[in-house]
Amino acid sequence: MELTNAINWFEIPAADFDRAKIFYETIFDYQIPESSVGSKKMGFFLYDFKSGKIGGAICQGDGYTPSENGSIVYLNAEPDLQIILDRVENAGGKIIQQKMLVTPEVGHIAFFIDTEGNKVALHSRK
To answer: What's the CATH code, domain 9-124?
Structure first.
């Protein structure tokens, strides 16, 4: 087994897909492409698929239940997570941990609750 990334894909549950899509489009300031796979509705975060980078989506469908008590996804917020964090509350989310330095080598993190009730984190080097 070759060790590369610890994660290959992530999905953030949405109770109201349109509301969740607008929230993430607002905080990241880009349009999220969407698609349906069977009865599942998906909105894709932008990433470099052709280079084999890690991606993920917001998802609505059977088996997707938002929660602030499950796994935590750290979204890439380069170059500075504060830019994205500053948009969270106006977009309908709630900041639960302001930007904080983990270590100079690791960088900064912050946590918020999205419009669906999921606890999500942001990470950036600065």
So the answer is: 3.10.180.10
Structure tokens at 49: 């698929």
Pairing of strands 40-44, 55-60: antiparallel
Q: Give tens-digit pLDDT for 72-85.
A: 999 999 999 999 99
pLDDT in tens, 13-35: 999 999 999 999 999 999 999 99
Task: Measure the CA–CA gap between 41 and 61, rounded to whole angstroms.
Answer: 6
Closest by alpha carbon to 78, among 125, 114, 42? Answer: 125
What is the C-alpha separation between 70 and 88, in angstroms, rounded?
20
CB of 103 closer than 8 Å to CB of 121: no
User: Between β-strands 119-124 and 74-76, what pairing exists: parallel, antiparallel or unpaired?
Assistant: parallel
